[in-house]
Amino acid sequence: MGTRVELFEAIRRDARVEELSIRQLADRHQVHRRTVREALDSAIPPPRKPYPTRWCPAIGPWTEVIEAWLIQDKTAPRKQRHTARRVWERLVAEHGATCAEITVSRYVARRKRELGLVDVEVAVPQIHPPGEEAEVDFGEFFTRVGGQQVKLWMFVMRLSCSGKAFHVAFGTQAQEAFLEGHVLAFEYFGGVPGRIRYDNLKPAVTRVLTGRDRAEAERFVALRSHYGFESFFCRPGVEGAHEKGGVEGEIGRFRRRHLVPVPKVDTLADLNELIRAADLLDDARVITGRPVTVGAAFTAEKPTLMVVAGEQFDPARLLQARVDNRARISVRQNFYSVPARFVGRRLEVRLSARTVEVFDGPSRVAVHDRAFGRYLEVLVLDHYLEVLARKPGAMPGATALAQAKAMGAFTPAHQRYWDAVRRARGDAAGTRALVEILLAHRTLPAAVLTAAMDRAVTTACLDPQAVLIDARRQRAGHHDDIAPVIAIGALARYDRPSPSLSDYDQLLAQPIAQPIARSAP
Q: The whole model's pTM is what?
């Protein structure tokens, strides 16, 4: 059976071609004569009559009660108004109602809209000229780093015109990560947008004032001054979320598209390599309603960006920290080791989003990957070797040793040599021998020392000096590691004649003049 429009077409055709009466048309098409008259009057069927309002036997007895509660909600605090579930619970508990919860929820949703309890804010479509504006925000996500699931933060900057976005993962959303994200984004884009939209992030805003006014962090003001862009701050809370809806949607889209399933990586650097590849993949994406890809739109927008300043802005924070009696400094509630000779001193610390660098004046004495958490220890075994030479009994249970094993710095070759030399010389002497080998890692390649230790265990020649001589001999066999040999004859130009004393002999050979005698007066 065709549609009602097709039925009207058939009736009108039969009436026009065969000149049938209304009764004949009704009999042929099995419809009422009223329908035939409607078809002859218009080719378009009339709309259906609206259904009359029907009595609701389940919710009907309680509509006045619900109405009173919803009207009272107009003056109640926003977070203490009736939800549909709460209305249903009160009807059951206080009035003995037997209606279903879904029936109540549908009625409450309709009445809330009619009473104006549901605010719907109308957004005005905007245009974004090339190079004029970008949006910045952080988004959280989870990943497995080194076998453990951790919570990370993704810095996102999105150009409003082309939709091109930059993403980078940090272990924190502190000011160091916020500033470093800007520096990396400007390098990635090869330019700086004229204005950047923010919500009221603590790394940029220290206090929200009246209207759009903000008390801004000094480091953020320095970043803005360095690159020459302007900042725009959205309204606080949910009311201002739509003012930077582009980056809000970009965070969710990227998380669903590239971070599902949960990534599994060894280090944070590996994760950022995956994110960088995902950014390149997104260049082929076409945003709904746009005629070109994101990559093509960015190519057209890039010339309109401001030029990046020649000197890079340093996003790191400079601190000072005192070294405790365990050769550690405390930075952001985490502990990092430094060489033991600095115990009790105060050192300079350069804290960035991903590294912690420690300086004694102009000399860098330690560098660590930044730890994310609280009360974590990041220790390097090399920093404790001089102490372990005096206290060999502390070696087996040392936290730095456990971390060195976990990172692969303390290899099975080290363990085999240590076990062998302790069996031969005892625990204390054997550990001191191992420490002597570990100290040599500062000047000799790890590969030659590992090979020398394996040969020492095989030959049972475990003296540490013999191991070091073997390692140096092996290193000398690699011509790339030593200075080139110069022929002896080529050094002749540096020869000097032997000293001669002949001039002094001539002075001694001359007669000595006699003094003139003087007569007495």
A: 0.71
